[in-house]
Amino acid sequence: MIIKNNGNSEGYIGKSGFTGEDRLTPELMLTLGRVSSPQLSPDGAHILYNVSYSSIEENRSCSNLFICDADGSSEQQLTKEGKSISNAVWSPDGQRIVFLQDGQIWSAPIRERHSGWKLGKKTRLSEIDGGIREFAISPDGSRIMYVKYVNSGLRKPSDLHNDLDKADAICTDDLMYRHWDHWVKEIPHTFISSFDAGKKSCICEESSEDILGPSEALFELPAEPFSGIEQLCWSPDGRFIAYSCKKLSGKAYAFSTDSEIYIFDTQTGNTVTIPMGGGYDTNPVWSPDGRTLCWVSMARNGYEADRQRLMAAETDLAKLAEAMEGGSTSEGGWLHGVREISEGFKYNVSGPVWDGNGTIWFNALAEGVQGIFKASRTTGNEWAIDRITGEELWYDFNSPFGILHEGDSTVLLTSWCSMNFPTELAAVTVRGEETDCRQLTNENTDLLSGLKAPAMEARHIRTTDGKDMLTWVIFPPEFDSSKTYPAIEICLGGPQGTLSQGWSFRWNYRLMAEQGYVVVLPNRRGTTAFGQEWTEQISGDYCGLNMQDYLCAARDIKSEPYIGKIAACGASYGGYSVYNLCGIHGDIFDAFVAHAGIFNQEHMYMTTEEMWFPNWDNGGVPEECSMTQDADGKWATGPAGDGETFGGVRQGGSPWSTRPAAVRHYANSPHKKVTEWHTPILVTHGGMDFRVPADQGMAAYNAAQLMGVPSRLLIFPEENHWILKPQNSLLWHREYFSWLDKWCK
Questions:
Q1: Where does the Peptidase S9 prolyl oligopeptidase catalytic domain lie (predicted)?
Q2: Positions marked active-site
Q3: Which residue of 270, 409, 447, 534 has the fewest C-beta atoms within 10 A of its own C-beta?
């Protein structure tokens, strides 16, 4: 069924008028509103936010602006544009809305009238060739930083032979020539410009300055493929910009996660570094008084699932200005007390936000749900971390986007979701040790409240080595234990991730339950919400304990009298898990679905793009062998002939490594077990997937065919690791459920 959206402007996509269903269907799910990008007004009274709607018929989505009071009342749609609006923010004086549309920055005055809010005539503020990706306005409103793409240095045919201007090819002498879903012809850089929210064409390339400068032209700011403007932060006085950057390119970039925090002076153009070494340093955020900078840091280079620590340093901006004006690029004098303030906290800190009282609020996945935490100073320079939303609240909370102090209460304006509903804005009120949560928006409440919702339980399943594994189980609506139901066991991607209370428009567990399946979600070894030991066990042991965890969960649910046939389904590492289970499960599973899965580990190592990941996770680089650089910037790679250093880079996780863990890893690649395959399998993959290239899926499907196993292949030539376009997504869901129904019902 194709659902049409209500709309009245040319190209406008509005809220679905879909009615009449008593259960969630793929068609209905894909047309639900998607709430994002909330912004609290400067006076703390109103919230601006986006809602995106998709049209299956038009095969696209469109995002428009909404506004409500800070308590969720007086909700109103502000725009009904046919072209998406994004990155919308309040001007510092609260008089205008500044936003992106068609790759350029616009602004419009906003007024509150008796009949509601109204946006005035919009003014185009930028004239930037190639368009702008994101922006952030300085606190005083006089400057703006914006992200645009620049030439990456990857050579075109015309660079090699100027008479071949119509030839189409990529020529490179190094790695990182493709990333995620694109050939790296361009990379993001961040520029600064003067700014006037009401002045036409005030932002142009001639008056803009590249933060990185000519000598750093090959570096990304922000990092590809997912980092954004949140990796840069204005100082409260608007003079400095703290930013995260991995100042590497080519092979060095491909094997390293070593980003650092830098501070750029908009007046002198000088840059200083906060030297940390190790792995990722990201998300710098200044306190409102400018005296403290905090950020998120990983200790080990090359390990992208290392514990995310909360770091802080005292900053004297006056002394920093003096140092910059004197040409100094050292941290002496203006930087003090660099330290971790989350010692003893076993979870991953994410999205730190300051309030005006010097407290840092953040989110973290902890014991199966994503909660809000706070870090506050105690005596002296010590910090304490407290959990604000308890693990008994089965929701995933994001970090606050606004913090209000009302008497003895603190109100955290945030967003939340669960497996039962997509993201909505919410308020968490903290009063002493009491916490109250309340939903502010109800974008999808009317549609979802008319459906029969599934029930859910949390089980703790005993693993083969005696551990307790949190496993969510979702039951079909109107579940009756005297009846028999098919089951789906979900194999998580990552492998480092968590099956929490998140809502997904791609792998939606409520949707699966509402098609009549019991859905089993085991947080096997490698998941990130149960401490670092549980997370790290999976590295170098893909074929080991986590596979046994899956089998334990399957046996547990199959022991229930209401369970009939069962399928295992997963994407990415979950797809690898499916391919692996195909060869070892015996007769436990009745069907499989693998999306974007790793089938041949040897070939995967040589065709993926971010080399640091397989190099570590395939058994290669323990903590004592983390990649480091000497004073001359050369990689410390170990002696030649050590069995892991090749081509000037330590490759302990490679197919040619002699490390025992790596040897075991490749010996147990799923492709070496295909003669044991006998269970029907659906293989799906995106043709533009450069993380797990599509030939992995095609090879798995071909192997199934060669083994005589019932199998089906679904390739999406223009999709990446994720299936995103509305009609492609609907096709994927229809084939997914058709396959499972055929073999499990």
A1: 503-623, 664-744
A2: 572, 689, 721
A3: 409
